[in-house]
Amino acid sequence: MSEFEDCLRACMVRRNLCGADRVAVLDDLIAALVAGSALAPDSREDALQAVLRREANMTTATADGVAFPHARIEAAAPLVPVIGIHRAGVDFGAPDGVRTHVFVLMLVTPPFAGSYLRLLAGFARQLGVPAVRSRLLEAADEDAVRQVLRG
Q1: pLDDT 10s digits, 20-41
Q2: Is the pTM of this model over 0.85?
Q3: CATH fold for the domain made of 3-150
């Protein structure tokens, strides 16, 4: 089984993001990590601030409604991404001006930086396909989101 497939099995999914702005969406994604025990509750604010600092440096939003928010943080479990779907979309500073609908948030511990880049490439490859993005917005449940990303 591939590293990407292993990651999809372990990832968390939030299908109904509804935050009105980037901070609210990021906070909801990080809350999912806390709820799933991939991040200690007392590290939640540090994680949010680390991701916001990264976003202030340069947006992780790409064209076509996708963003890959991330940060390095010691307190995170190794590479447990959260996939978030926001049907209405949020202004996330994308270069094409399109609202962002699909988020893949990863908190990375330094020893896993190489794995992170491989996983990011896998997510980017899948999310670069317009039909994949459309099917994600229509996915009925978490398993359907994972199945869409498997291809």
Answers
A1: 999 999 999 999 999 988 888 9
A2: yes
A3: Mannitol-specific EII; Chain A (3.40.930)
Radius of gyration, alpha carbons of the chain: 14
Yes or no: say if 105 and 81 are a contact pair by the CB < 8 Å rule.
yes
Question: Which residue, among 120, 127, 100, 123, has the nearest Cα to 19 in the 3D structure?
Answer: 100
Phi/psi of residue 12, each to 5°?
-100, 150
Kindly state the tokens that stand for 16.
């109904």
Residue (of 118, 120, 127) closest to 150 by Cα position: 127
Kindly give the pairing relationship between strand 66-67 and strand 61-62: antiparallel
What are the domain boundaries of the chain?
Answer: 3-150
If one counts every other C-beta atom within 10 angstroms of the C-beta of residue 66, the result is 24
